[in-house]
Amino acid sequence: MSNLERQSATSVSTDCPAVSSQPVSQRIATRDAVLGEGMTIRRALPSRQRRMVGAWCFLDHFGPVDVRSGDGLRVGPHPHIGLQTVTWPLQGEILHRDTLGYTQVIRPGQLNVMTAGRGIAHSEESPKDRPPGLHGAQLWIALPDGDRHCEPAFDHHPQLPVLQRDGVTITVLAGAALNERSPAKIYSPLVGLDLAVPDATATLLPLQPEFEYGVLVLEGEISIDDASLAIGTFLYLGCGRTALKLRASAAVRRRSAAVVELRGAQQSRDQRGKLGLENRPFRRRSRLPGRTHSGAAATLDGVTPASASPEKYRVARGYVIS
């Protein structure tokens, strides 16, 4: 998902603090942004206080919103380069179309990962026949320099590893954690977790001190190391922690999501300021014909497939990123 802004400027992240080698507790208010054609969402990354956490360069929290009337979500065709998009819906459905020819509806419990590489364009919208609500998160990952111009790809994962810990349901979205590994292909050493707290409970989540971490609540309210955290605040935790104490004082409907990325992955940090957000000529279409994830490729009218032309081209529920 993107802001389809016609007037924009490249920003280099020299005004943000460096990665903290020690545990910190930096609270950053999310800001409202307009997604596609009029849907207001909460944007946690990038911000003036912190542009990236590891290779994670973008974090949007959308919904919950009623999409029964009007067009619902409608993000028209737009290009990406040099990154991956990671889409994780908590409620509702999203229809993805891209210039590789894929057409894929994603539902709760499923994951979409689009690798832009040297160039891809896609659209995201609510299906015509859809559930009444929409809620979820989307993240972007900056590709390391060695993979920044790789072949574009799209992967849909209908099932992900799920485990239980102290009554908390943990879904491994990306990378590996707690002896489970996500099937998603990621180019940087990172992990994404979704934590669902179904009742008042507490757990101690093991961390790696060389990772930096961040947390974003998507539903309800949680306590992180005895400090309350609610919707609308992104919590950056820095490096140096061996565990994270998570507590929910009341039942929450769904998750807190965690995303972590290895500190010292300099190839990812070098992407600051060159994350594929450039404006490129692109003809918009309201509808993109294509294929399902297992089908054959199709050409989109008015859009050259990225594979042929390199020039064209994401309770107490929260996100923890590092």
Question: Could you say what the CATH topology is called?
Answer: Jelly Rolls
CATH class: Mainly Beta
The helix-and-strand class reads mainly beta
What does the radius of gyration come to?
A: 18 Å
Q: Which strand-content bin applies to the residues?
A: over 45%
Q: Mean of the pLDDT scores?
A: 78
Which range best describes the helical content: under 10%, 10-25%, 25-40%, 40-55%, 55-70% or over 70%?
under 10%
Shape: globular
CATH superfamily: Jelly Rolls
CATH arch. level architecture: Sandwich
How many structural domains can be distinguished in the coordinates?
A: 1
**What is the CA–CA distance across the termini?**
21 Å
What is the helix tally? 1
**Low-confidence runs of at least 5 consecutive residues:** 261-292, 294-318
Compressed to H and E, one letter per element, the order equals EEEEEEEEEEEEEEEEEEEEEEEEHE
Strand tally is: 25
Main sheet properties? 8 strands, mixed
Give structural notes:
- The chain is built from 1 helix and 25 strands.
- The chain has one helix at 266-269, and strands at residues 23-29, 31-35, 39-45, 56-66, 74-80, 83-91, 94-98, 103-106, 111-115, 120-125, 133-142, 153-157, 162-165, 168-174, 176-177, 180-181, 190-196, 201-206, 211-219, 221-224, 227-230, 233-238, 243-248, 256-262, 317-320.
- A hairpin with a 2-residue loop joins strand 15 and strand 16.
- With 322 residues, the chain is mostly beta strands.
- It has one domain (23-280, 315-320): Jelly Rolls.
- The two termini are 21 Å apart.
